[in-house]
Design a protein that fits this description.
This protein is mainly β. The protein is 13% helix and 50% strand. It has one domain: Lipid/polyisoprenoid-binding, YceI-like (Lipocalin). It is globular and about 50 Å long.
Amino acid sequence: MKLTHIIPLLTLTTAVFAAPQSFDFKDPKGVNNAVFKLDAPLESINGSASGISGTVSFDPENPATTTGKIIVASASLTVPNPMQKEHLHGANWLDVAKYPEITFEAKSLANVKTDGNVTTADVTGTFSLHGVSKEITVPIKLTYLKNKLSARVPNLNGDLLVIRANFVINREDFNIQKGQYEEKVSPTIDLSLSIAGAAVTK
């Protein structure tokens, strides 16, 4: 076989067997966060959660195969008003003592489009909150940043994967005070996620 025939075969073999990378979303800088908003007629409640962890398997050669699980520590949810925060964490609302985690486990991607290092898709997975798990589909944006980990964390080498997503859930779907206090606490919750995961190389 001629060398000109072998080189394309080697390139194809490398692409086919390129392993996906595992990205860890427990941020050593502690800046990963999720933002939530409930905009009711009488009050608008805005807050965030910083206790984020989880792993995502991502193959830059085949982003459509992306899977993984993102975890938010319920007790890390906070709002500016201390009394509202106490109510939010309490047994009548999120009951963080009983349900310590909010999770999303990605199962499949559809409508995948990649332009350079950015992939957009609709991800379907299981969203679990307040002891209830539901299958949902949400739009996401994945940005793969090769060899950029050291720019974020100077003592580490590797790649970054940034996930951005915005979607809406209904609190009644998760048995959170269904039909109650809707003038002050919106029945819909707007969620915004912007997090970076690291794949460390030696």
